[in-house]
Amino acid sequence: MHPTDRPRRLRTDGVRPLVSETSLSASDLVAPVFVDATTDERVPIETMPGHERVPVDEAVARVEEIRDTGVEAVIVFGIPESKDPNGTRAYAEDGVVQRALRRITGETDAYAIGDVCLCEYTDHGHCGVIEESAETDPTLTVKNDETLDLLAETAVSQADAGADMVAPSAMTDGQVRAIREALDDAGHEDVALMSYAVKYESAFYGPFRDAADGAPAFGDRRHYQMDPANRREALREARIDAEEGADVLMVKPGLPYLDIVGDLRREFDHPIAAYNVSGEYAMLHAAAEKGWLDLEATAHESLLSLKRAGADLIVTYFAEDLAGRL
Ligand code: PBG
Questions:
Q1: Which residues make up each annotated binding site for Zn(2+)?
Q2: Domain range summary for the chain, segments of one domain joined by +
Q3: 119 Cβ partners below 8 Å, 6+ apart?
Q4: Binding site for Mg(2+), residues?
Q5: Measured over all CA atoms, what is the biggest interatomic distance in the chain, rounded to whole angstroms?
Q6: With 290 labelled, which of 57, 127, 271, 326 sits at a CA distance of 20 to 30 A?
């Protein structure tokens, strides 16, 4: 008995590259950068080995380190000097992200993306303005419509500071339209908008919340971020954001949600982004530290899988480390 179909014939070293369906390159990757207004020095982020919070004065140097590896795009997160109920430092002209963006876009050729959310800037740690009763009744914490203006103001202030793209991650209904209109009104019609359209209420964000100091002081985010049990709802979320004017649709987290990346790939002609989140990064690092997994191989396989599922671009903490090896 001789099998006629022998897929092995195409697995030799010589032919594998010719029949490879997916490729990964540095130009697919976006590297997160944390800019911290509370420090004069670089501070390592314990839960994300290899990553640091840097002061504004180091932002350009940090971005150049990333560009030296071949990664040209960064997404900037901020740790403000102070927090208050309305997250005012998120949309201040001299806010930490605004100051960093001005320097990064003025002094480097990086493609600069601003993360638009309030959770790092509010003293309660939620992604918008909250109800007075929130502490006792956390089921309906964030006031959706009151939050829209603040997100729009944040996006415009980032665009004013030179951002090439803004990326709203607050999961506020209507945020894409509110931001798009505000950007256009302010003369920023060429600033692109990448929506965290499908953002799940995920336990995989833990290490990031340490890094950016953005954990909610009470309650959780499950009445504004998506239920991990839902798949069809992801298409609904993405459709709304596409109609509201998003240029890129993102799925977050990445690996546990490959089915969703695939669904969006099939349904939309927009570029699809996947966010390989902090927990996905920390897991591999922790296992590698114990000698249980090969860090580089598992990181590469993770990102390749996101691309295979349909992502065009990937936001990942592995960007710098992997880029040089691609
Ligand atoms: C802000 C924001 C978060 C992440 C990206 N933007 C935190 C959150 O929603 O809790 C998480 C990124 C990661 O875990 O790597 N809303």
A1: 117, 119, 127
A2: 24-323
A3: 87, 125, 126, 127, 170, 212, 214, 216
A4: 237
A5: 75
A6: 326
- For residues 228 and 278, the answer to whether their CB atoms sit within 8 Å is no
Cβ pair 221, 227 in contact under 8 A = no
Catalytic residue at 199?
yes
Cα(208) to centroid(ligand 1), Å: 6
The class level of CATH for 24-323 reads alpha beta
Residues forming beta bridges with residue 198, ordered by sequence position: 251
- Cβ distance 120 to 212 under 8 Å? yes
Q: Is there a catalytic annotation at residue 252?
A: yes
Helix (H, G, I), strand (E, B) or coil at 108: coil
pLDDT in tens, 202-239: 999 999 988 887 788 888 888 899 999 999 999 999 99
What is the ipTM score, two decimals? Answer: 0.95
Rounded CA-CA distance 292/286 in Å is: 9
Q: The tokens of 40 are what? A: 């004069």
SS3 for 181-193 is HHHHHCCCCCCEE
What does the alpha-carbon distance between residue 308 and residue 297 come to, in Å, rounded to a whole number? 16
Q: Which atom of ligand 1 is nearest to the CA of 279?
A: 14
What does pTM read for this prediction?
0.96
91: Cβ contacts below 8 Å, ≥ 6 apart: 150, 153, 154, 156, 157
The predicted pLDDT at position 223 comes to: 87
- Residue from 34, 151, 205 to probe ligand 1 pocket by mutation (most atoms less than 8 Å from CB): 205
- Mind spelling out the 3-state secondary structure of 135-162? HCCHHHCECHHHHHHHHHHHHHHHHHCC
CB 325 within 8 A of CB 296: yes
Q: What's the distance, Cα to Cα, between the start and end of the chain in Å?
A: 41
CA 204 to ligand 1 center in whole angstroms: 9
Probe residue for ligand 1, chosen from 121, 195, 209 as the CB with the greatest number of ligand atoms within 8 Å: 209
